[in-house]
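Pinned message: reference record for carnosine N-methyltransferase
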Amino acid sequence: MSSVEDEELRRRKLEEALEVKSLRRIISAYLNYPEAAEEDIRRYERCFRRLPLAHKALLSHLPLKFQRLRWCISQNSYFIFEMLKAFEPPLDMSADVDISEDQTMENASDRHCLSGEMNIGSCQSGSKTEEVHLEKADECCSGRGCNGAYGSPKPEIVTEEKKIEPLNKNAGNCLIGSDCNGEVEKADASGFQSVKNSPPLSSTLDCDGHVSSSSPDWLDPSLQFHVPLVDVDKVRCIIRNIVRDWAAEGQRERDECYKPILEELERLFPNRSRERPPACLVPGAGLGRLALEISSLGFISQGNEFSYYMMICSSFILNHSQVAEEWTIYPWIHSNCNSVSDEDQLRPVSIPDIHPASAGITEGFSMCGGDFVEVYNDPSQVGAWDAVVTCFFIDTAHNVVEYIEIISRILKDGGVWINFGPLLYHFADMYNQEDEMSIELSLEDVKRVASHYGFEIEKESTVATTYTTNPRSMMQNRYYAAFWTMRKKPHAASEHLS
Ligand SMILES: C[S@@+](CC[C@H](N)C(=O)[O-])C[C@H]1O[C@@H](n2cnc3c(N)ncnc32)[C@H](O)[C@@H]1O
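Predicted structure (tokens):
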């Protein structure tokens, strides 16, 4: 083997080890959830104990509330653990991840966290993509921060399994998800330690408090890490995202954000052919609900998502839900602020509100893991899509111009771009990370850039909405989202994209 090949092999191995480490960290964040939540309750209890007796007497219900919170945490943990058990890691989790911190730090910014896809169906698109496919059961059985079949009685989702290879060799910064303020954290490869030999961090308990058996090897406690609390916050954000996408309580947000998009797609594609359905891409698909709804409308729909936090959860809901309202979670327990009552804070939410496999999806529905820029820059993607739908997505860009350029390139001539969302640039105001690329344009500039890449505005409005907001909270942050339909002029690619 030549020294160049040798070096390439070494680089690939290191990248894979980093990917494994990154995925372990995300899995550990999920597993750290119960312990971190318990730590919060211990803090509430410490504060309660410090109260004068007279004040304690006034608040004598609080110890019971703390116990109830513990029970809610155990229910959330049970859901999380079942979700993790169903996850099939796209990487060999036993791969040696004994990389030095120097190597990790040096390379963390050169790679991407998410490689691959889940098993809803199959990615017919770019060569780099790996996917998740949900197939019609009757045919073939198949945060922003806190700001993701059919007819037969018991449809089954076929999980087409693939070995997932890293998608993003030499990709940009490693992003591991959005936090509750819509910010995306850059992976810090340090800051978590192995907790070898400690008992399972979490939820090997089932809902009755029994130890759960049949956990996969890669969930072995010896492979878990203590992660920084900021990682566990991402898990809490995912729980809120579940409400947005997969609970009846999220219906109002979905009606505000997804419904106008779906109505627009229906208007723009009135005569959808069942034999050759139009193809629609949803970059930054989150937990997959919008992509699923688009599929149910009669489109070949593909969600693209690069956060493993999101992909683990969307795969579980899309591929493993047996019935509607199968799970009960307590999404609002983690904040004592702005509650009208304890009952509001402790209220259960049933998920999913629908059975995804019975939603009447169109064949070809898939979730494609990876960075939008990396995956859809592939030459195979040029002119591949009839529609691109971005919902709360374009402001996740390091360079929004690049996103627009790619959207234009992958659309067919005459194809449409429907966008819905604010411009809360995720990489803006990243203190202490001065080298973080972030191009932050006004709405006017975004539209001007779109026009340069051959887009003509057909419709435009502003829609007030929230994002993963507790509908009963005394605080409701509101976005005034830009909602537009732009059409790619014929021959835009040759005029502008050379
Ligand atoms: C604010 S969330 C919106 C999710 C969903 N569209 C919704 O409306 O609920 C943005 C999503 O885009 C994903 N994302 C951010 N940058 C991405 C990229 N470069 N490629 C693919 N997905 C990305 C994030 O992980 C997150 O799930």
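Pinned by admin. Summary line: The pocket of S-adenosylmethionine is lined by residues 144, 177-178, 182, 244, 257, 283-286, 304-307, 310, 371-373, 391-393, 396 (CB under 6 Å).
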